[in-house]
Amino acid sequence: MIGIAGTVLPVLPGGPFYLFAAFCFAKSSKSIENWFKSTSLYEKYVEAFLQKKGMTRKEKIRINLIADFFIVISVFYVDILLVKILLVVSALYKHYYFIKKIKTIKTIDRNRTKQRA
Q1: Count of structural domains within the chain
Q2: Are 53 and 105 in contact (CB under 8 A)?
């Protein structure tokens, strides 16, 4: 229900709540968990990140642009100054985290990793 509210309300992020719900749902059944882990979405984005291999520059830029789009919409839509400040601070921290904490790998490295598995 919170994920649905996050879809309608720009201040409440729906994505993380949907992901959390999907995670809980997948953990409730081994067959659903196995199915989710075999999807291209999981293999492309989640698997390498969980293995501490990092993300490609293209993936980092794509994720940041999508998140920034929704943050900017929220900043303009919300009238509460404190919420605007928190949104801007969280956006800046997100960029810091993606630049400094998540390793940037080349696309070739990702392909090599897939070939070894």
Answers
A1: 2
A2: yes
